């Protein structure tokens, strides 16, 4: 295993663990497994907990990926942030869809469903971050750097 893959696994694993812990705390103790009513829309507890955890792990994940894992990227920070945001939104959407399927169709417990979807999303995220968000070296064109 190369150093970058190890760093991705360590940083991503720590951030993922934080996200799962925040998800479980939000689901059980903040929302008490009850629907979150916002007046204009009601979020089921498993979905609301997902978005609550996103608000914390998104910025932490970006800084870990930018400064620890993919520190050799020559792309500007704002380009990396924008790409990371796009990739994260897609991952969040994928997580949301899979979570709804596992919880509402297959009736798998919400926290276990989140663990399963996390594994699937991690595989997707690594490939996108390595080849798009934090591309480095010869894979970067001159126009992307400027």
Please explain how this structure is put together.
It is a single chain. By secondary structure, the protein is mainly alpha-helical. The protein is built from 5 helices and 2 strands. The longest helix is centred in the middle third of the chain and has 29 residues. The two termini are 32 Å apart.
Summarize the structure.
The protein is mainly alpha-helical and 146 residues long. Helices cover 75% and strands 3% of the residues.
Features of the shown structure:
mainly alpha, elongated, 146 residues, disordered C terminus, 75% helix, two-stranded antiparallel ribbon, 5 helices
Q: Could you say which structural class the secondary elements and strand pairing correspond to?
A: mainly alpha
Tell me what portion of residues adopts beta-strand conformation: under 5%
Integer average pLDDT: 86
Main beta-sheet annotation: 2 strands, antiparallel
Which stretches are low in confidence, meaning pLDDT under 50 for 5 or more residues running? 139-146
Distance between the termini: 32 Å
């Amino acid at each position: 295993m190369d150093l970058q893959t190890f760093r991705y696994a360590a940083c991503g694993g720590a951030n993922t663990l934080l996200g799962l812990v925040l998800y479980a705390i939000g689901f059980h103790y903040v929302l008490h497994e009850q629907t979150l009513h916002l007046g204009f829309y009601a979020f089921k507890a498993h979905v609301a907990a997902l978005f609550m955890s996103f608000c914390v792990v998104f910025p932490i994940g970006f800084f870990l990926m930018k400064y620890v894992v993919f520190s050799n990227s020559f792309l500007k920070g704002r380009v990396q942030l924008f790409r990371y945001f796009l990739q994260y939104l897609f991952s969040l959407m994928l997580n949301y869809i899979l979570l709804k399927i596992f919880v509402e169709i297959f009736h798998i417990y919400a926290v276990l469903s989140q663990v399963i979807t996390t594994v699937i999303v991690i595989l997707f995220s690594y490939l996108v971050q390595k080849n798009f968000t934090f591309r480095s070296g010869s894979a970067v064109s001159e126009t992307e750097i400027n």
